[in-house]
């Protein structure tokens, strides 16, 4: 950690506090559709860019989940937040769990959106090549997005997300993060953690849907609950932002 606070922006002025961490394919702008449906009178949501993404695209780093966690805690310090919820989308949820381990007295609850578990994301050799090659090959990125949304979207929708991921992330960071979120396994360290957890998954996500949650998160977090969005795949903040906002706000209000 260098002490530099990464770029972030806060939505809302209410008493609730949440740090929001983006997925592998998106910077903080990927949450724009979700932000439109969040009640700013109820809470404050701090959306930040990981190193190598968005406004931090040229920020050097190791590009690990540990680094993301440290950077996010630095943002919380900058905001003067002693305690908060962490909302993580996909790889962002892996980093959120590192934050829980590093600052257990500060993380009040977790929200995982199609979340990568503390055990990582095992991939067979062929799929690993697809994911690893996505750093340099736009076609690989398109194939992954198409696969994880159930093959339901047209070329325009897929192309827009591929183009954003290419323009708003560095290939070096994109490739390096894969090793950290997919391969690192620290699930024994989170086993039986009592923190409240909401898991929101899309019914059309074949990779990180309900079955994956049953096999991982729901085994390790005794106070975890599962919410399935019937019309979403892996990218609920963009596919079903209103339904996702409602699920998050109901959880935080409770």
UniProtKB/TrEMBL annotation:
Pfam families given in the database record: Abhydrolase_1
Hydrolase recorded as keyword: yes
Record-annotated AB hydrolase-1 domain positions: 19-239
Molecular function terms, GO-annotated: hydrolase activity
Transmembrane segments: none
InterPro entries to which the protein is assigned, alphabetical: AB_hydrolase_1, AB_hydrolase_fold, AB_hydrolase_sf
Record keywords: Hydrolase
Domain of life: Bacteria
Protein's name in the database: Alpha/beta hydrolase
Native source species: Streptomyces gulbargensis
